[in-house]
Design brief:
Blueprint: H1 16-23, H2 30-38, H3 47-57, H4 62-65, H5 70-73, H6 81-100, H7 110-121, E1 128-134, E2 140-148, H8 158-167, E3 172-178, H9 188-203, E4 207-215, E5 218-221
Parallel strand pairs: 3-4
Antiparallel strand pairs: 1-2, 1-3, 4-5
Helix pairs in contact: 2-3, 6-7
């Protein structure tokens, strides 16, 4: 076993903080970035070594890392609640940054709708149903959570959906929910609900232009698959 050497005794070129300051954040490995978040290690492992243990727990997959709970992270020796919460907070902040980039933008494709919703929903371990309220030109007004449920489903009340749309004078809406399983194909219930909401929207002159199913493995667009024909 290699002798443990504390980060403070590493060369200046190898210390993560100094390396970031001198060469830029993109030059650091995932373990080095995570090590900076951890701040310090243990008597037998550096912060970067602990970070490698965390990444190994997530199979070196950042999407899987985002799904780990405080309890999961604390199974690693040297990681307590404070360090686990720091990691989860950083991941959440990154997701919110991605979402904020989409505000006030025009949604002109399913991929843009997916880019808006994925940071919010792809790492959830239970289903949530959201709507994206849009102006006539498909510029974003705001997003609105309708419901959340279990691993296999959630209830989307049409009254709540169109109440929110009417309150914000939305001309068009995009439906979205996530599939924690990773399978993005719509269920029979998803198909029936979408058809029901499209018809209800026509009665209120609110166009349901798409329904996006997101997961950590990709997304499904009802519009792209010909399941919704928009008037927009």
């Amino acid at each position: 076993m290699a002798e443990y050497i504390s980060i403070k005794n590493w060369s200046e070129n190898d210390k993560p903080r100094e390396k970031l300051a001198a060469n830029g954040r993109e030059t650091l490995s995932n373990a080095e970035l995570l090590g900076i978040l951890l701040g310090n290690g243990t008597r037998s492992k550096s912060a970067v070594d602990l970070a490698r243990d965390i990444l190994q727990l997530a199979n070196n997959d950042l999407n899987q890392l985002a799904k780990l709970s405080i309890k999961d992270l604390c199974t690693i020796s040297g990681i307590g609640p404070a360090k686990a919460i720091t990691i989860i907070a950083a991941i959440e902040l990154g997701g919110r940054r991605k979402k904020s980039e989409r505000v006030d933008k025009v949604i002109s494709s399913s991929s843009q709708a997916n880019e808006y919703f994925s940071p919010m929903l792809q790492d959830k371990d239970y289903e949530e149903f959201w709507i994206l309220l849009l102006k006539q030109n498909n510029a974003i007004i705001k997003s609105h959570k309708i419901s959340e449920g279990g691993i296999t489903g959630t209830v989307a009340d049409p009254k709540r959906i169109f109440k929110a749309a009417l309150e914000h004078n939305a001309a068009n809406i995009i439906l979205c929910h996530n599939h924690p399983s990773g399978n993005v194909l719509p269920s029979p219930a998803d198909l029936r609900l979408t058809e029901k909401l499209v018809l209800a929207g026509k009665q209120l002159d609110i166009d349901v232009i798409d329904h996006i199913i997101v997961s950590h493995k990709g997304y499904y667009s009802f519009a792209d698959e010909g399941k919704i024909v928009s008037n927009s």
